[in-house]
Amino acid sequence: MIVSSDSKYSMQRQPKRITSNALVLFVRMLIVTIINLYSVRFVIKGLGGEDYGIFNAVVGVVMTCSCVFPVLAISVQRFYSYAMGEGAWGRLREIFSASVNIIVFSLVVIIVLLETIGLFFIREKLQIPVERMEEAELIFHLAMVTFSFSYLQIPYTAALFAHENFGIYAGVSCLDCVLKFVVALFIGKVCFSGLTTYAVGLSVVSLCTWLCYVVACSKYSECRYYMVRNHGIYKDLLSFSGWTMYGSFAGVGMIQGNNILLNVFFGPLANAAFGVAVNIYNAFASLSNTVALPFRPQMIKSYAAGNFEYLRSLFFANNKFIIYLLSCIAIPLVFEMPMILDLWISKAFTEMSVFSSLFIVYAVLLSLHNPITILIQASGRIRTYHLVAESIMILCLPVTWVLFRMGMPAYVAFISMIVLCGVAHVARVICLKRMQGTFSLASYFSSILLPCALVAGGGGGVSLIIYVTMEPGVLRLGLMLLASPLVTLCLAYFVGMTSYERSMVNEIFRKFLRR
């Protein structure tokens, strides 16, 4: 397909827009990650190990339903961006109003399921001390309130993403993070118990965040609700969401399902270790999404406009930037995880260190799917892709259950996740080749996997030398955190990037220096 010069959607200035959005999101990610990780220290100190484990186990039951979050968010974003790429601006309000109806209806269904099946599971299956059960049920209901307001944010964040207004998104999410940090500081300083204080605080914060998004999106004409009569839009949104739901269920199910299995087989302390590891995983997932988000609208709009050469360059750049940034952080953390946890948590134990290191490996491997999934979603041909790849991923839960029944240690849950994630990625690449005839497996290997392996190998080699030649301590940690990322980023820039990709990086630095 050839794009005419007078097309409503011009690609000429889009690379600069991507770099500008990437800079905003990167700053947002740094602020949110630092505050979130620092907050964990106060949460664990205020709650204690057992209560922190109880909180994670109970909230984990509610969060099994969070698989619908990315499903509807991605679906609405995709239809927004595709309509913009086609120039069908009048359809945006219809998409917004239909998404609101779908979200409200599905939220009612989720609440009913949680109040019946979820409550039964907490009472009968989780390892919670009898004297704490009443409070655990209260935490469960407060977690549902938090979940509900977070769920209602989806139509508004989708509008912000489609308009590529990432500044507002960054500002609101930073405010959300700061408020949660304030809640963590109040644990143990009010008349309520620590668990209740924390749960109530998170519910209030989620309400405030939702209101901020409603106010921020009031400037968009399409964010005005009206009763949608066109039933076709519901069919389109739900059809796209259905298979995306299956994919999201596999991802969320692996994490929250393993959290529940750890409670059943190993008790609340295993959940405490898992909770700390999840915070580290979330930091890596946030970085991966930070890199992918500025590319997503442009990739979908490029596909809709038929500019496949530009789409290909975005796909390659997106893959590399994600792996390079994750590698420069992941490599030193894996080597020095025990020391980092001792300095961060001060109550770290062996399981916490092992869980965290393995979760990092899983996060880096999982991040490889992001650009591939965006391409598949842009085409709309998602059924086979999700059916094949996510069927492999969801096998993690029965495999982990069998391994636990055989008496295997808790960390095998992460081994199972990593192995199946690798197998699923192979399936994703094969699906992309079959669905996109122009996609080349040889090019994917030579232009993405090979340079990424060389860059990560160089950074890992430097880290290994430091690790074996120096005594454990703060000095080795400091040198590791300095030298490994520096070598990784230098190799990425001079060896692992094309001239076009280096120009994007240069543009980010120029914008950063001007600010």
From TrEMBL:
A Gene Ontology term for the protein's cellular component: plasma membrane
Residues making up the signal peptide according to the UniProt record: none
Keyword Transmembrane helix: yes
Highest taxon listed in the record's lineage: Bacteria
Subcellular location(s) per record: Cell membrane
Transmembrane regions: 21-40, 52-74, 95-122, 138-154, 166-188, 194-216, 237-255, 321-341, 353-372, 384-404, 410-432, 444-468, 474-495
Keyword Zinc: no
Record-linked InterPro entries: Poly_Biosynth_Transport
Broad class of the protein's primary localization: membrane
The protein's name in its UniProt record: Polysaccharide biosynthesis protein
Species whose genome carries this gene: Paraprevotella clara
